Amino acid sequence: MRARDICLVAPGLRTRRRWEIALYLSLLFGVGLLVFETLHARTWSGLYGDNKAQFGRYGDNKAQFGRYGDSMGQFGLHGDRVQSDTVEDDERQEVELTEFPGTRPESIASRKSRVICLCSLWSKIAFRPLVSHWRVSRKHQFLYCPVEKTASTFWRRFLHQLEYTSPMRSPFDVDVKSLYASRDKNLEVTESGEDLAALWSNTTKLLFVRDPYSRLYSAYVDKLLSPNPTYWNNWGKTAILKYRNTTAEAVRGDSCGDDVTFPEFIRYAVSQDGQSDTHVMSIYRLCTPCKVNYTVIGKMETFSRDTRHLLSVLRINESQLGLERMADDVTRDAVVDSVKDAMSRPWLDETLRCITRADVVRRIWRKLQIRGFVSWRFNYGIDPQTVTAMDGASLVEVLKQAVRASTNRTELGIQKRQAMVEAFSRVTPSQIAAIKRTFFLDFQMFDYDSSPPSLANSRTGVAAMTDAFDWRKDWDLSPAL
Ligand SMILES: *[C@@H]1O[C@H](CO)[C@@H](O)[C@H](O)[C@H]1NC(C)=O
Ligand SMILES: *[C@@H]1O[C@H](CO)[C@@H](O)[C@H](O)[C@H]1NC(C)=O
Ligand SMILES: *[C@@H]1O[C@H](CO)[C@@H](O)[C@H](O)[C@H]1NC(C)=O
Ligand SMILES: *[C@@H]1O[C@H](CO)[C@@H](O)[C@H](O)[C@H]1NC(C)=O
Ligand SMILES: *[C@@H]1O[C@H](CO)[C@@H](O)[C@H](O)[C@H]1NC(C)=O
């Protein structure tokens, strides 16, 4: 079947195709620039992402774009919005479950044909594959393109076990710290030319994707809200210096970059600099799905189903994986990982220059609330004397108690979604438009809704604000309940 024909049968595309082509034509000039940029420079956002005058038509004009990208009813089939077996489950689902009662998650096959179809339409936008980023198990002919903030740690552990244990043991037995502590050259892709082509044709190739809004949000919560001197410095300071009306001296001098806001981070993430960082780079560019014919394209939002599918492709018995341990493991990792580094000596040496020890604890606490592990009802109640004496191990104990006591899953879900909606409500429309442009192909290829998360099911239609990110004061969620 020719690609054109596949386009015609790809789910959701039949009705969309006319718009696709209209857009393609209207963007032709822009694409020309893109190709030029791809050939002559590393990045494209300078021309593509920032020039509002030129791309205003596409990204900012709601009348036009809304019809194309935002209207969900029009295109019928929408995958993945019903399933709810996720790792950090996609907050959006709960809402959409009620909106699209009849829909089923799209099949893996239709996901692939959708990508192939869009590749044929967008073949002019081509990035060079980031081969050094991939990981491979040659023994099992398995290739993985890691997408950060999309269960990449799980898949790195998976690949490690696949390569080194026989019969394969659970990924959860691999210590995360040691996994990242040193490079394992054996798992890196060093092939080039014909060898690389052979590797591509002979391996089972895995890509796991995630909704761009969730991915960006998760990067902020994990690396900037949570005390992390490295990312405060790399992302926070850079963003503040560039986007805040402040003097350069003030930023270079005392600042740690710890107070970078979500809107500032978003501006950075969609900028040229941000898009050269693999943590926030668009998946299209990071894993080049038009250059690599992925065998399985999984989604974070249907994690269990897609993982089972991959296992059947690789002929691995599910019981070897311990997937049932996943939920507990994610929770344990969330608590321990939030605390271990942040309360360690080298990190504290950095962070305590700018914030107090109590602030460190408060931020960790709020992060676990925002991620839906600790109820908003349990507020940080540790007095300053205790904090001074408190070490990582004792904080982990206190947090574990709080996690155990947080049993109302419904409310934890509301809490999690509320925080995400609040974060995006502070991002300006022009920055939302920039997200839509930067992740344009991610939204399209992987069939994600390009409108930002909202409380579509709230009775009033107006989201209550609860200052979820003001970690200095206790979180009061009652206005949103
Ligand atoms: C790929 O598979 C072909 C045919 O099965 C085989 O001849 C070739 O050696 C394989 N290449 C690699 C790199 O495994
Ligand atoms: C930055 O702050 C200065 C002094 O407060 C003000 O005069 C200037 O207009 C501000 N610039 C912007 C772009 O907001
Ligand atoms: C991609 O791989 C599938 C098998 O997974 C194969 O049927 C198809 O022909 C390949 N397409 C291209 C363009 O290589
Ligand atoms: C998977 O492994 C379990 C336990 O080792 C075994 O009981 C089961 O029959 C296996 N399933 C398949 C399909 O081989
Ligand atoms: C869980 O929280 C929701 C929302 O606040 C509330 O309506 C419900 O009654 C709670 N359930 C229990 C068992 O407390």
UniProtKB/TrEMBL annotation:
GO terms for cellular component: Golgi membrane. It is a single-pass type II membrane protein. Its main location: Golgi. Its EC number is 2.8.2.-. The chain crosses the membrane at residues 21-39. It is found in: Golgi apparatus membrane. GO terms for biological process: carbohydrate biosynthetic process. Coiled coil: none annotated. Keywords: Carbohydrate metabolism, Glycoprotein, Golgi apparatus, Membrane, Signal-anchor, Transferase, Transmembrane, Transmembrane helix. GO terms for molecular function: sulfotransferase activity. InterPro entries: Carb_sulfotrans_8-10, Sulfotransferase. PANTHER family: CARBOHYDRATE SULFOTRANSFERASE. Belongs to the sulfotransferase 2 family. This is Carbohydrate sulfotransferase. The lineage of its organism: Eukaryota, Metazoa, Spiralia, Lophotrochozoa, Mollusca.
